[in-house]
Amino acid sequence: MQNISDMQLDESLQLEQEKGVITIWLNRPESRNAMSVKMVESIQQIFTAIENDTSIRAVIFRGKAGHFCAGGDIKDMANVRAEAMAAGNSKPYADFNRKFGAMIEQVDQAPQTVIAVLEGAVLGGGFGLACVSDIAICLENAKFGLPETGLGIIPAQIAPFVVKRVGLTQARRLALLGMKFDGNTALNIGVVHEVAEDQAELELLLNSTIEHILLTAPHASRVTKALLHRSLNEPLEQLLDEAALQFAQAVGSDEGMEGTMAFIQKRKPKWADLD
């Protein structure tokens, strides 16, 4: 397994690791942390490296300099345009766009709990990334939106994840109007789970979220997240049969026994002690 401290990542990302939590900082403040191809590839590299690492309990996405992510990088788009003109077809555009979708899907399916801390611009691809987080918290004055249609393009890779997050009715309105909205509206339509009035409250919400994650059993959390994803696509009877078997395994597992004993003895379970 690759150690994340040894990975050669693009400078557009900065990594921090404390106990069982990794923070991925989007680090392109000059462009409000717009997503470059190198940034996308580095995020994929990180999630591939930690996929089977049960010591990593949570991954936090944040943006440097007061913004989360303003969408795709315009300079990269210009480079792809040159490739497309040289090739005489649109395949370079499709490949460029699909790479972002593959990254979003990988984050969505990651076994770790993914937290998005949203400030400033949360637009386009940044909005899509927020929509695949397990827990999203934001500042009240954050600016969300899907501006693609106003730019003459479409939210191609983001759309399915927005629909899963907020439902088709809201997704239609957001994508077809392309308007921006604040953190309170994001809370009302289901993009985020909690809203902070200021930076101090945002950090308190983040710390509380991490504390709760570390109290949950590592393997049980992974199995639960996978089960929730499966519930959208699989026949109910088959899913419930398999879930019953997983429940039986969990009850008899080391985690199940430790969790029960911790509850009876009124103490934290051993997995919560990461010191």
From TrEMBL:
Q: Could you give a GO molecular-function term held by this entry?
A: catalytic activity
Say which family it is in: Belongs to the enoyl-CoA hydratase/isomerase family.
The name under which this protein is listed is Enoyl-CoA hydratase
GO terms for biological process? isoprenoid catabolic process
The scientific name of the source species is Acinetobacter gerneri DSM 14967 = CIP 107464 = MTCC 9824
